[in-house]
Amino acid sequence: MTVRVEIDYDRCTGCKRCVRSCSYGVLEWLDDAPIVANPHSCAACLECQKNCEAGAITIKVT
């Protein structure tokens, strides 16, 4: 299983909910936006995607 976390920076409002909701340390805050710092740690729990009210986070599992 391969998990890919995608962030649509055009939609991101900078609320940090995605970073706070990630229990696996996949997302981190850098400057003024979230980044996918540890992509291999993603368990595809979808918490970051569910907590993003702007719809800027997409989890793709292949």
Please state the CA-atom Rg, rounded to the nearest Å: 10 Å
Biggest sheet strand line-up: 1-4
Largest β sheet strand count, sense and barrel closure: 2 strands, antiparallel
Mean pLDDT: 97
Please tally the β strands and state the result. 4
Per CATH, the class reads Alpha Beta
Q: What is the CATH third-level topology name?
A: Alpha-Beta Plaits
Q: Give the low-pLDDT segments.
A: none
Share of helix among residues? 10-25%
> What letter string, H or E per element, gives the SSE order?
EHEEHE
Helix and strand composition category: alpha+beta
Shape assignment: globular
| Shape-level CATH architecture | 2-Layer Sandwich
How many helices in DSSP terms?
Answer: 2
User: Strand-residue fraction?
Assistant: 25-35%
Number of domains: 1
Distance between the termini: 6 Å
Keywords, separated by commas or semicolons:
62 residues, two-stranded antiparallel sheet, two-stranded antiparallel ribbon, single chain, alpha+beta, Alpha-Beta Plaits, 2 helices
